[in-house]
Amino acid sequence: MKREWDLLHTPGPTPIPPSVDRAMSQPIIGHRGQKCKDLLKELTPRLKPVFGSLENVQLLTGSGTSALEAAVVNTTAPGDKVIVVVAGAFGDRFAKLCQTYECNVHRIDVEWGKAVEVKEVEETLREHSDTKAVFVTHCETSTGVMHPVEDVAKSVHRLSQALVIVDGVSSIGGAEINMERSGIDLLVSGSQKAMMLPPGLAFAAIGERAWKVIEENDRPRFYLDLRTYDKKLTDGQTPFTPALSLMFGLEEVLNLIEEEGLEQVFERHQVMKQMTREACRALHLPLFVADEDASCTVTSIKPETFDPEKLRKIASEEFGLMLAGGQQHLKGQIFRIGHMGYTRPANVLQYISILEIVLKRLGHEFEAGAGTAAAQEAYLSVARELV
Amino acid sequence: MKREWDLLHTPGPTPIPPSVDRAMSQPIIGHRGQKCKDLLKELTPRLKPVFGSLENVQLLTGSGTSALEAAVVNTTAPGDKVIVVVAGAFGDRFAKLCQTYECNVHRIDVEWGKAVEVKEVEETLREHSDTKAVFVTHCETSTGVMHPVEDVAKSVHRLSQALVIVDGVSSIGGAEINMERSGIDLLVSGSQKAMMLPPGLAFAAIGERAWKVIEENDRPRFYLDLRTYDKKLTDGQTPFTPALSLMFGLEEVLNLIEEEGLEQVFERHQVMKQMTREACRALHLPLFVADEDASCTVTSIKPETFDPEKLRKIASEEFGLMLAGGQQHLKGQIFRIGHMGYTRPANVLQYISILEIVLKRLGHEFEAGAGTAAAQEAYLSVARELV
């Protein structure tokens, strides 16, 4: 099936709104000229509320992982003790980055599918009071868990001087987060998830305390040296040629977010989460994550009666509905639905209805239309509340 | 003036062909799905002739500098002796990268505006026979010099075991280069110059000898670890979410290059160089670089009778013609014209004709129409040859 017919519901990359696509098609401009300075000076402060940040948000040209690496190499030196919460592939990536860059890594390994408990972080921190930084994933894309990063941050700051560094790649722009309120020191993200852009742009929001550490840190770094990004930004520039077309698109993404209202954007993601989860329950599809730990941007299902890879294959071939499978030891065990960014309740109704057909083909038993009805009911109950 | 009217003739970023722009607007696909695997497996071998490479070309998501950094961190360890040819801002960047990553750097400082002489490299190499790598810039964008990198490579390999690592950011896709013929070991580039794409994608073509060094090198690296790119490529994947829209565009760029013919693409850049240089001579605009050292993608002019910044300002404000100024100590001393990528002799005729008006406004003396006539003559003399 041609990609024109695809219904992209992987947990990133995600579909691009047509107006963002048009914005990205604007003619290229010189990256040292006035037009680019004006654009960058407009964009970086407008990103602040999305990150709940008091400081400008820095733009890096790279995948989300480049921002994770920037967070590690700018704040740590070899031998520094760090705590990393690992409850999936992306927590694991943070830990691998810290190990690669020769930190003294203490992992808090949490069962995949569960969120970390704040008290676990507190206990580890008490054992390792000389910890320089605590790394946590906001939304663990590989499982669909949303870790309580704001509570973790508050707790860490009560107990220690450690920085709290958060991977917000698959949450920023979809889930509420507030660096100011919670004391998160460094929050990084990527363009290709709830930020409704193609991959290739990464973000770093850096609090005051983190800046102090970054300024004093003499670990060798160049392309991802956040000091040079900040220095250049005062002149409306980036140190290296930035992903200009994604910057053009970002301007329109911010227009869309501001028109809808940031609160409403977050609310929409909550509604899509509820609709998806209620539908799964009605369809006897076991949710991999408990309600209290579940992400509002991605939902994981662990079927017991059929192979999730078969479901993905039929959904893709018959309807162009692209879902994600499991990663690492969850390969072949779960499937994941992304519902973030340029996605509305109408899209949820569509993929639930498609899933019902696919489940019929797989011989999975459920009351006809039960998923759709449950999703509709979840939607209407919220809509009533909103009235 | 709105950017829709701009005539972008900086030496990168450069304009995007409409068909490439349309290709980039294709719907986003999952980066772990079959469609993306098919695309990557198609793209990387098709890049080989552009780099004159026997090996697949790796795609990185980042600015050109990310590829320079990848070249440094993958091939060197702290303390390694390296030679860096510095004859402008980008040679200087290679040297800074090597210094940042704690190499033992021997700079060959060449006067800005001149190309390195092969014998200088040979002499330095004789003095430092334990050199691990020689870093050279192909086109030094800041001056418009094209260094004889193929001759340097042959010479280095005659004298030593050192790797030859070349920055081809502003040459690849416009200037002929052949890794196989010359023995260049590692050749990196970016998307936003002669490759006719927006910034955000970077390339690394890696020869057999370089792979051996890279495999054995245990310097810590993660996002730019070329080993993981190669490993993932065997499965048609990149280690991290790639700049998908630029990959869609790259497919069409390769279509355009193949339709025109690679030889013809290189020839077109030579013609544009000759047209520009002959026009400058006729307009009494002093060329900053001698013919034998001059790049076919960018031409620098060092006016004696007027301020180049004034020329740039009028060209930009009155005609939307965007030219570049000088960098570092050449700021306010030179202006630079980019003629690469999606640029044809017709564009040269246009910017020369605009320059004539701007020069009139500046009170610069020249025979009316002399620049245009010289450019036309240069074009016709080649056209006659081609008949």
Automatic annotation (TrEMBL), chains A, B:
Q: List the keywords (alphabetical).
A: Aminotransferase, Pyridoxal phosphate, Transferase
Annotated region described as Disordered, given as residue ranges: 1-21
Q: Tell whether Flavoprotein is among the UniProt keywords.
A: no
Q: Which is a Pfam family this sequence falls into?
A: Aminotran_5
- Specify the Aminotransferase class V domain's residue ranges: 59-329
On whether Transferase is a keyword of this UniProt record, the answer is: yes
SUPFAM superfamilies in the record, alphabetically? PLP-dependent transferases
Q: What is its cofactor?
A: pyridoxal 5'-phosphate
For this UniProt entry, the molecular function terms from Gene Ontology, in alphabetical order, are: transaminase activity
**Database matches in InterPro entries:** Aminotrans_V_dom (IPR000192), Aminotrans_V_PyrdxlP_BS (IPR020578), PyrdxlP-dep_Trfase (IPR015424), PyrdxlP-dep_Trfase_major (IPR015421), PyrdxlP-dep_Trfase_small (IPR015422), SP_NH2Trfase/AEP_transaminase (IPR024169)
Coiled coil (UniProt feature): none
Assigned protein family = Belongs to the class-V pyridoxal-phosphate-dependent aminotransferase family.
Q: Name the PANTHER family on file.
A: ALANINE--GLYOXYLATE AMINOTRANSFERASE (PTHR21152:SF40), AMINOTRANSFERASE CLASS V (PTHR21152)
Name of this chain's protein: Alanine--glyoxylate aminotransferase family protein
